[in-house]
């Protein structure tokens, strides 16, 4: 049955051919130049990724962050920013069995580093992630997420003195403006 249909399709296509040749741009638009299509990336890209690493041992975390930076440069990834976040302190208490008596008390400090990657090609991202997970040291956790405004806000340490002064000013009735 296909043999019967195909010759008729060929004949129909030969009849439908235009007599004059027309040149059409590859982008499909008359108003855009062809070179704009060639500037687009070949693969989909992640616009901005945050690689966050956390751990209790600061020198080990610094070394691993330096390693990740080197891997990213080796894979031709654009490292747009690299920074440390403020450490978080946690107090842990160990109790005696079946009682509320504190046997030991520990203060743990969690350090965090962040590596921001820009315009990451989709085929390169799994390779980077496999290398990062394979070299992940003990006690260090790795998370990758898209960059958000929350990530940017966590980066900066609030000035407690300034916040206290602003609160005191609000208690006193706010800022006064003198009109002349």
TrEMBL record:
GO CC field: mitochondrial ribosome
Small ribosomal subunit protein uS10 domain boundaries: 50-145
Keywords (A to Z) from UniProt: Ribonucleoprotein, Ribosomal protein
Lineage: Eukaryota, Metazoa, Ecdysozoa, Arthropoda, Hexapoda
Organism per entry: Drosophila pseudoobscura pseudoobscura
Full protein name: 39S ribosomal protein L48, mitochondrial
Keyword Ribosomal protein appears in the UniProt entry: yes
Superkingdom classification of source: Eukaryota
Entry-linked Pfam families: Ribosomal_S10 (PF00338)
Gene3D superfamilies with a match to the protein in the record: Ribosomal protein S10 domain (3.30.70.600)
UniProt-listed PANTHER family: LARGE RIBOSOMAL SUBUNIT PROTEIN ML48 (PTHR13473:SF0), MITOCHONDRIAL RIBOSOMAL PROTEIN L48 (PTHR13473)
Gene that this sequence comes from: mRpL48
Alphabetized InterPro entries for the sequence: Ribosomal_mL48, Ribosomal_uS10_dom, Ribosomal_uS10_dom_sf
């Amino acid at each position: 049955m296909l043999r019967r249909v195909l010759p008729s399709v060929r004949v129909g296509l030969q009849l439908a051919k235009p007599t004059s040749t027309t040149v059409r741009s590859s982008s499909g638009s008359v108003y855009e130049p062809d070179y704009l299509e060639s500037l687009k990336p070949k693969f989909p890209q992640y616009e901005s990724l945050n690689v966050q690493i956390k751990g209790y041992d600061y020198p080990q975390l610094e070394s691993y962050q330096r390693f990740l930076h080197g891997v990213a440069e080796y894979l031709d990834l654009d490292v747009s920013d690299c920074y440390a976040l403020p450490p978080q302190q946690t107090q842990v208490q160990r109790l005696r069995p079946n009682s509320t008596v504190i046997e030991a008390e520990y203060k743990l400090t969690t350090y965090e580093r962040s590596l921001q990657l820009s315009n990451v090609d989709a085929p390169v991202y799994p390779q980077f992630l496999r290398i990062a997970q394979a070299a992940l040291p003990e006690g260090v956790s790795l998370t990758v997420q898209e960059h958000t405004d929350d990530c940017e806000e966590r980066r900066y340490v609030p000035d407690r003195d300034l916040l206290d002064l602003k609160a005191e000013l609000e208690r006193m009735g706010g800022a006064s403006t003198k009109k002349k």
